[in-house]
Design a protein that fits this description.
- By secondary structure, the protein is mostly helical.
- Helices cover 52% and strands 0% of the residues.
- The chain is elongated and about 45 Å long.
Length: 63
């Protein structure tokens, strides 16, 4: 996790009155880095004027 992201995360946690435990920021940083990499990959796909075709899978709905 880069320094700016870490500082922002600490500020948001402090604003909410939360104190991260030892190692929380490192573990969250790993998840955040993975998430950001996935988002960058999705954003790199050139769809131009393609329309989104959502699908519905009733077997996946929460019960």
């Amino acid at each position: 996790m880069d320094k700016l992201t870490e500082q922002t995360l600490k500020a948001l946690l402090a604003q909410a009155g939360l104190e991260p435990k030892e190692g929380d920021l490192e573990r969250f940083g790993d998840l955040l880095d993975h998430y950001v990499a996935s988002l960058k990959e999705l954003q790199s796909v050139k769809l131009d004027d393609e329309e989104i075709a959502p699908t519905f899978h009733p077997e996946r709905t929460a019960k």
